[in-house]
Fold:
Amino acid sequence: MLTIDVVTIFPAMVEAVLVDGVVARARTKGLVDVQARDLRDYTDDKHRVVDDVPFGGGPGMVLKPEPLFRAVEAITAERGTPSAVVLLTPQGKPLTHAMAARFSGMERLVLLCGRYEGIDERVTDAFVTDEVSIGDYVLTGGELPALVLMDAVVRLVPGVVGDESSVAGDSFVRGLLDHPQYTRPAVFRDRAVPDVLVSGHHGEIERWRARQRVERTRDRRPELLDAADLTSEERAARELLEGDASASPKRRRS
Ligand code: ADE
Structure:
């Protein structure tokens, strides 16, 4: 079983995601054990202070080393040596599917949520195995990033998502965006689903979807295309599109 300990000054934020959804269900099924650890429980002063001013001056506050050292040591004593200690920080490596897949194969994950201007670097030096960012924007803390990472990791644990083929076919597993999906009704407010999808012709449906995946990736995330692991249908679609100037971007997306 995968255990995930999330060290945070807002444990209620982490507990909120444990009541509903995929992570909650994985917990009930006994596939993962997630615990929110209140950083203030690892302080030893009356006011349970977790932060202090930065040496060298500057704005904001820095998470103090003592509570974080105690928290990681207490989790290690209780659970055993962590497989990885992950610090969520905008200074980290961007989170990818490959990274989530690596974490999903581990036994004991510890997630440290930063706050304020950061955490004392000695914590990073002593314990942190991976520094991870969820994107090039700054949030108010590492809690939401930790929850994002946890969701991406937990759904890859075998048995968590009912249909394994839905996970295998995901965007980014092969480095390509997904094709569009439709469900009933076949016509809704004068908008019909593409004819090919109701044709029952599986070969044509697969060719259409392959073309959609390649076209979307080329239009929205062209940098992904060269590294993508293409199927024969997708390679054929790519060759068709490369000789097709009319298939240039149709819409702008922010
Ligand atoms: N903490 C604040 N912003 C963050 C980000 N983008 N990724 C990870 N942790 C963060």
Observations:
- The first strand starts at residue 2 and ends at 8.
- The pocket of adenine is lined by residues 88-90, 114, 133-135, 137-139, 141-142, 145 (CB under 6 Å).
- The mean pLDDT is 94.
